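<context>
A single protein, sequence plus fold
<sample>
Here is the protein in question:
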Amino acid sequence: MKKNKIIKWAFLTIAVLYTLIFLYLESSNILFDHKSLRIHLARLNKDNFWQNKPETKNWYRDQNNMSARIGNAGIVEAQVNGSDIDHTQSEIIQKGNSKNQPSNNVNDVHKDLNDGDEEVKVTIPHSAKHKEEEEHAMIHKENTIDLKQYINYNHIHKHLNQILNPIYSDKKWCNGKFIKIAQQMAYLKDSIIDRTKITPSDRGGETIKETLDQKEEREYYNFYYGAFNIQCNASKINMKFKPLHLQNWFNYLKISPLVMKPNMIITGLTIAMLREDYAHLYFTLIELYDAFLIMKMFNHTFQNTNLLILDAHPQGHMDDLLKKLFKTVFRLKHLKTLTQFEHLIWGFPIQKSSLINPNVKNLNKRLYLDQFKRTVLNQFGQKSNRIPSCRNQNILFVWRHDYVAHPRNKNGIISRKITNEIELLNVTRERFPSHNIIGIQLDALDIGKQLRTISNTDILIGMHGAALAYSIFLPIGSTVIELFPNKGRNWHFEYLAKWNKCFYQSWYNNDTQRFDSNGTSMTIPANVIRSELRNAIDNICNDKRRIKKITDD
């Protein structure tokens, strides 16, 4: 009897502990709720779900509550200057042979449109008289579909598990107007940005000359409660984001049942981005890749996605890349006082990117990296199918020269330069006469020429620096040779090269006497370059992938 009582109390204790743990995990958003699990399983198998799993149809039907009105076009194309648009106008700009022409109150379009007669809209409400016309414009060419059809989780779900959170779940509020994704992202439907709650909202996009010696803190906005707004009957949304900037944005989100009348409406998908290092190629490419993953989740491309920059950095060398890729790039000062975004995404932070996060750097590959590469190159009219030659290779030396990249370096002095550039070119051309060998400063070229040069390069060689981030756009089977001024180890460009299916070699300087008196330039031994190039050429010539490709063709 005593033994049975002990067993009974033991089971009771275990049950109580289990219940407490369950409640703790649930309250901390750690536990995967079963409905979300069913929804995600259905998403992953949506293409063949009905054929292969008819008995689980109810799991798929659970997503019917996650509906949203979305448009298959309707991205604002014009760069809008808030002070130049007449509040008494409501414009619909159409592509192709449109009969509706933009008024003089809308600034020039960033770039020509290339994808058919898809409708592009800038809507500026002004009075009840035109309310019916504006409502018609907003729903034109739209369909009411389930959010499950709008978001593509196929393959991406597992990848984002590794990148964002060991446990992936969506939490939604306000009938789907606010959806938290994996504790690292958020989707906002028909949200409104109030410029009066962000200061100084007219800053950002100036020339570097106008901002020399500007402190970095002046290049970030001050947000206040009500900067973001959602119309909803709920009084409060309780949640926490791990990324600091997303948590801050959420703290400034105002939930109110009151209807706000926007001065401007931007339709389609818009990704809000707070850039880490706007002048750095490496970080810009990481942010673009992350944005590309978000677009894949929402079945979008660069061509029909807006970018909203929520920092106040001045103009930079990477601006042309952003403008060329995205449908429209908005800065805060381009918006009206109250601007409504039909579909707004708060993207996950760069620290969680699989291209930079050391916790996931050992993955063998990166999701959609090949497609990202092709997409960017195609946008600039370049191909990504070059096969490296064995006898006639294109060898590119990337030089680092002084230049002003941001306001805090007004003298433009940079480090890790090579003193004997001409010597290295002459020696390698003499040693490898059948190959095409050039040396250039990439950042002196426009983005299009940079990508054209890289996409036709077989061997890329240079000092450790941002330009080696272009490894991601090299032809498959190429080689990257990274030169380090010291023994310090850095894996970033090595992994970019390997994820792009390229060979990687490195050399580390161990002689401080090779530096100049300022410590910003150093001499690279010619025999080192000859040896590294010899190995690189042999690797390319013996690459079975290259041989197989040539044989197959």
In short: The domain at 381-552 is CATH 3.40.50 (Rossmann fold). The radius of gyration is 27 Å. The chain has three domains: 2-65, 145-358, 381-552.
